[in-house]
Amino acid sequence: MREFDLIGRLLRPLARQAKESLGLEDDAAVLAVAPDRELVATLDMMAAGRHYLDGDDPALVARKLVRVNLSDLAAMGATARGILLGYAARGDLDEDAARRFVEGLGRDLEHFSLALLGGDTISQARGEVFSLTALGEVPKGEALRRCGARAGDLLYLSGTLGDAPLGLAALKGELARREAWIERFYLPSPRLSLGQRVRPIAHAAIDVSDGLVADAGHMARTSGVRLVIDRARLPLSADTCRLLAEQPEWWTRVLTGGDDYELLLAVPPEGRDDLMRAAQAARTPLAWIGRVEAGEGVTVRDEAGRALSFAHPGFVH
Ligand SMILES: [Mg+2]
Q1: Helix, strand, or coil (residue 215)
Q2: In this structure, are residues 62 and 101 in contact, taking their beta carbons and an 8 Å threshold?
Q3: CB 187 within 8 A of CB 68
Q4: For the chain, what is the largest distance between any 2 Cα atoms, rounded to a whole number of angstroms?
Q5: Residue 301, exposed/middle/buried by CB under 10 A (0-12, 13-18, 19+)?
Q6: How many CB atoms lie within 10 A of CB 8?
């Protein structure tokens, strides 16, 4: 059996439920969009050895690929509709790995009620690469952007910070293993419900994929403002809290490591109550971590109010 046939055959059942995919029998998927809505599209790629470790369970790689893309839709306040998959396998297709990948993909498509709308599979001599395009929609003109933060806004962060980069450090043997960290590294929780609910409340949003300092920097730059974050207010898991109490040198990794996929929001003070209600309805913890001021760049202050400096604010693409 040719490898393309195999992957195609494995993927086809995942597309069958979605009539928009036309059963993967046609040249492209066809999506209806209501006249008062807009399509939101995003693409993320993952390469062996760069975005995941050799030997990682392909099912987890597939699920992370789905989740990082959905996190981008969440940051735009969008509702997810479906995905397109690019699967570039290494020369000799590992059948088991392909099956595991499709298994993980199917599991998360079901979990997030997403349709596989189409895609392509190739084989090439070098390492494997996966790409995923996620499509979503928002009411016309209402997509959340990075660029809307204004001086006086309050900054909020969902979930907890640092678990994923510490999970990666643990996987690399730099830290003792904590299963909660490792799970967060492989399986981030895209904050779709929160993103949709805060769409009418927040001035700006971004998901923390490259590291808090770097992503806050993107918001500051596109909005033309300065973001001031109080380290003491950052929401941390119990494991992370314990580590930082014993080994404060890990703060840098927590603040600049990526992969947490939490939402950073800039919200006007008068939107605070609505924001808390939205977070409650989305069952997503949300912490006030700082404020927006006139100026530029990002300042993270320690407990004594001193500005911290970072050699590298985050992941560089
Ligand atoms: Mg993003």
Answers
A1: helix
A2: yes
A3: no
A4: 65
A5: middle
A6: 15
Say what the pLDDT of residue 74 is.
98
Of residues 237, 210, 234, the one with CA closest to residue 312: 210
CA distance 271 to 73: 22
Q: What is the value of pTM for the model shown?
A: 0.94
How many of the other CB atoms lie within 10 Å of CB of 88?
A: 17
CA of 262 to the centre of ligand 1 (A): 10
> Which SS3 state, helix, strand or coil, does residue 301 take?
strand
Report the separation in Å between the CA atom of 125 and the middle of ligand 1, taken as the mean of its atom positions.
Answer: 30
The CA 277 to ligand 1 mean position distance, Å, reads 24
Spatial separation of the C-alpha atoms in residues 209 and 26, rounded to whole Å: 35
Q: Helix, strand, or coil here: 83?
A: strand
Rg of the Cα trace of the chain? 20
Best CA proximity match to 119, nearest among 76, 74, 69? 69
Could you tell me the distance, in angstroms and rounded to a whole number, from the CA of residue 75 to the centre of ligand 1? 7
Q: How far does residue 209's CA lie from ligand 1's centre (Å)?
A: 6
* Number of residues written out for the chain: 317
What are the strands of the beta sheet with 79-90, ordered from one edge? 37-47, 129-139, 79-90, 115-124
Asked if pLDDT for residue 49 goes beyond 90, the answer is no
Residue ranges of domains in the chain, CATH in brackets: 3-28+35-139 (3.30.1330.10), 154-301 (3.90.650.10)
Distance between Cα 211 and ligand 1 center (Å)? 11
127-159 pLDDT tens trace: 889 999 999 999 999 999 999 999 999 999 999
Beta-bridge partners for 82: 115, 135
Q: What is the pLDDT of residue 81?
A: 94
Using an 8 Å Cβ cutoff, are 275 and 156 in contact? yes
